[in-house]
Amino acid sequence: MIQQPTDGRFRDLTVDAFVDRLSSSDPVPGGGSAAAIAASLGASLVAMVAALSAGRPKYAAHEPVLAWAAETGQRLANGFLDLAQDDADAYAAFSSAMKLPRETDPQVAERTTAMQAAARRAAEVPMRCVEACVDLVAVAESLAGRSNVNASSDLNVAALLGEAAARGAAANVLVNLPSIGDPAAEGEMTIKIHGLLSDVEALATAVRQIVLSGEPREPMDPQATDTPSLGGDTSAPASW
């Protein structure tokens, strides 16, 4: 039976309670959940900056992108909370698989199969987090120079949190890949993760540079931007 990471969902805990759980000797929540929570905070900041800019005459030309960023930021923030829980559940499954008996050859084979399946999930969940972090930082970049200048530092923080969360989640992907027992998939996912990190770094750097310059940018059509999909996971909950 798979151990449960908490008495209830992480999203239902107070900040204080989550921090207490994170600092305990319990294996979950761990770094993957912490990364997703950090990304959720970054997405919330994106929504906040959009809200602080909407309805202001100075940013009237940017209303379409502000509305899009507000909705997208809130949706991403909610999805990252789900990913925090998914990451803990995935590790719990891997931990349970490791404890399966291995006294006979059939037991060893069953344990190996279970561990490989659990390891794949433990790599796929943080991969989804990294993919979603690209979406997060891309929305922040879209707002840079098109939103309330008094909240520009908050936008920079959002990008920084997104970048840090992506790197943290990527570390979890890479540490689990050797255990999936599929060298081809391991190679493909390794290449993919490095590409995603490169995208995140480029977008976060752009946010910092635009914020630092203080220069306004031309309006953009959010319909011309790929709508964030939280990593393109077609099985993601509808609430994402």
Fourth-tier CATH superfamily name: Formiminotetrahydrofolate cyclodeaminase monomer, up-and-down helical bundle
- Rg is 20 Å
Tell me, what is the CATH class? Answer: Mainly Alpha
Major sheet attributes: none
Task: Give the topology string: H per helix, E per strand.
Answer: HHHHHH
Secondary-structure content class = mainly alpha
Residue fraction in strands: under 5%
Instruction: Give the number of helices.
Output: 6
Q: How would you sum up the global shape?
A: elongated
Protein architecture, described:
There is one protein chain. This protein is an all-alpha fold and 240 residues long. It has one domain (29-216): Four Helix Bundle (Hemerythrin (Met), subunit A) (Up-down Bundle), CATH 1.20.120. The chain has six helices and no strands. The chain has helices at 15-22, 31-53, 63-98, 105-143, 152-176, 183-213.
